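Q: I'm building a small set of examples for a reading group on sequence design. Run inverse folding on the following structure and report the sequence directly after it, with nothing in between.
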């Protein structure tokens, strides 16, 4: 169920440090789907993950926004905010505008998520960074939601290699360092691609996959000596529980169709 991709960089001798062995769960785009998140956390724990790096979009479309935020505030999680989280937090200011230019179901999703987040969870999300620079041994990693250029840029398997090269250069110029990996999400489609010395890793979506496969998605990054190994996983989870919760909450049936079909709202609505 996992596909692996190995990368063997050769840092100059002066940057070599003691061997670091770490297994990191890479996840994101949970979109308020607590049953899917719980399945991922159990799987990752059973595989021996000791850290959890989350690329954002905690909330949206499903019935567990506050529970998801509280679960992902756990010790050991490194979290950044996603574009959807930012939109939900801005709902009070943007509502009048969105009434005019957003599809009513999209506006409803923002409204419901905002109204069902506790004050504590809203404050936690608002305080999160938009990207995170991580160091493991002598390796540098960057967590972004969309891309190093924009939290709404969609990176997927079809993104031109030249564009990934531009984004790598942008990130490395900003931080004045070389990155072993840039970890992203937002497109809801998992991949691992290489640009020179840097891996681009998309975690896939925990709570609302976008590739037509409804199973939850996340990735494992193994950091061992000079080797990086990425494994992408798809897992079954209790779909019935989230469907029942969505219906009990009075959420539109289109939101349930999204998780059943593994597609976004535009696809479900045929727009």
């Amino acid at each position: 169920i996992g596909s692996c991709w190995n990368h063997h960089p050769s840092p100059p001798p002066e940057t070599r440090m003691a061997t670091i062995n770490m297994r990191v769960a890479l996840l994101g785009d949970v979109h308020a789907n607590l049953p899917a998140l719980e399945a991922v956390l159990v799987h990752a724990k059973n595989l021996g993950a000791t850290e959890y790096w989350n690329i954002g979009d905690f909330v949206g479309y499903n019935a567990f926004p506050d529970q998801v935020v509280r679960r992902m505030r756990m010790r050991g999680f490194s979290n950044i905010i996603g574009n959807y989280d930012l939109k939900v937090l801005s709902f009070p200011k943007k509502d009048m505008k969105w009434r005019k230019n957003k599809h009513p179901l999209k506006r409803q999703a923002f409204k419901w998520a905002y109204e069902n987040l506790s004050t504590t969870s809203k404050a936690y999300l608002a305080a999160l960074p938009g990207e995170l620079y991580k160091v493991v041994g002598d390796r540098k990693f960057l967590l972004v939601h969309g891309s190093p250029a924009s939290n709404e840029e969609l990176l997927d398997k079809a993104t031109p290699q030249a564009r990934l090269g531009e984004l790598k250069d942008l990130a490395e110029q900003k931080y004045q360092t070389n990155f072993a990996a840039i970890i992203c999400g937002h497109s809801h489609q998992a991949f691992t691609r290489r640009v020179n010395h840097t891996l681009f890793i998309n975690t896939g979506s925990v709570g609302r996959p976008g590739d037509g496969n409804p199973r939850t998605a996340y990735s494992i990054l193994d950091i061992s000596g000079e080797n990086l190994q990425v494994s992408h996983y798809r897992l079954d989870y209790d779909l019935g529980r989230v469907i029942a919760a969505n219906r009990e909450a009075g959420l539109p049936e289109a939101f349930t169709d999204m998780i059943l079909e593994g597609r976004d709202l535009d696809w479900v609505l045929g727009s």
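The longest strand covers residues 216-224.
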